[in-house]
Amino acid sequence: MKTIRTTLLALLAALSLGAAAQEAAIRKNLAERLPNLPKIDEVSKTPMPGLYEVRINHSDIFYTDEKGDFLIQGSLIDTKARADLTEQRVEKLTGVAFKDLPFKDSFTIVRGNGKRKMAVFEDPNCGYCKKFERDLIKVDNVTVHVFLYPILSADSGEKSRNIWCAKDKGKTFLDWMVRDVTPPAASCDTAAVARNFEYGKKIRITGTPAMIFADGTRVPGAIGADRVEKFLTEAKP
Hints:
The chain is of the alpha+beta class. The protein has seven helices and eleven strands. The strands form three sheets. Strands 7-9-8-10-11 form a five-stranded mixed beta sheet. It is elongated, with a radius of gyration of 23 Å.
């Protein structure tokens, strides 16, 4: 029994070394042949024999062979399971638990008892965001964590600064989004807004508004108050 165990351990060690050497070869060849390719975060086997996943920029997925001779960009589909494995992988990589959101870089708007929770990433110049906010005021008993996410224009950054630096962020934000009252000029440390921009890119928020509910459900795009109510009711952190 001891001999069998020793043999199995030796085999596992050999396999581990082989996998490490394979990964090193892929990294080396891709880096040498594609010098403009960003730094590789991870190389791992896929369910398809001979195909390896190459992950860069946290959640960008490519595929290659065991020598790094070819690089493929696209979706890997499991035809038996009828599943997009690439999409599933990206969702896992960009998923975020509600409790792990960087709340220090947001401000809150509380309605009623504020017991229900949600977060929203918004650009002040986003027309869909304005429509969303005008519907959201109908929703009661909720705490909304607002993350300013200026992705549309330079003016989006200016308005975000004026909102973030306002004495009453929530009021200034709603005055603009709901009542078209331009935020007065203000200045302060806006590192939080810059961090929101980088964080949003990391978790692949590509448009606004983008909502995250207490159970981690992500909803892109403007939705009506009735659907917000539905998500709030169903959310179980």
